[in-house]
# Entry
Amino acid sequence: MRRRTLLKGLSGALACTLPWTARAAYPDKPVRIIVPLPAASPPDVLARVIAERLQRRWGQAVVVENRPGATGMIGLDAVARSAPDGYTVGIMFLTHTVLPALFGKVSYRTDGDFAPIANLVWLYNALLVAPGSEYADVRGLVDAARRQPGKLSYGSGGNGSPAHLLGAAFCQAAGIDMLHVPFKGPAEAAQSLMGGYIQAMFATASVAVPLAQSGKLRALAVTRDGAMEALPGVPTLAEAGVPAFNLKEWEGVVAPAGTPPDLIAKWNEAMTAILAEAEVREKLAGLGMEAAQANTPAEFTGLIRGELQRWSAFVSEQKLRNG
# Structure
């Protein structure tokens, strides 16, 4: 770890000594965006929307490279190990601020091995049950869980995934005990819910909305302050009787630590411009994502650090740590 940091520092320092004219043509070769989850996942969809617009702005190919595995750790580690030359960035999301507390040790420092560029989007979730479930509403699910502590279960796409955290936070806020069942992704969890093997699950809007609209699953509530346009008539968790429940996911872009500040600024400027486009904001909204307001690298760094502290305390309090 120390050797990696030293090498990055040296390469970053050398890059910073180059006169601006030496990088005036940046980018002069293809740019890579590493996504730590599979194709069609929310971070992948986001990366492809950004890549399309970035390619138009910069006139260079922007390649989206999927590096799934270990709940997002493998892909982010690949970003950390990449040359800090502005040609490789990656998508970081909420889970990456949970994993250090959940597993005790990861192969990179979430706050240290990256140069945050900008938060890109906020994501909201829906609480889902099977269409024929006996739970007509959130209150019905909560009452049943209280009558049978530890007997009902909720699924997620894996330990440390947003759906896992949402389920744990929901149980804490509602004062209930439900069993967490991790699966290999949200699709597998949804199939299990349809089959009646689990009783509930949280899923991002991009996953939940098609399932609810098709009738394959039923939405009981959404995790946002107001109604979700794509799920009319579905209450917020607060409206459904679960107070003090406020959790939204985020996805942003980071570069390897040591990337020159002028290149970080160029990336941030591009992200800000792209997210300001009405067409992009509408497209993201249709995917269940809310484009973030313009934010600086320093502000995104603050978000990441705040989330690391928040989830470290939550994992400890809920005794969620593995191993």
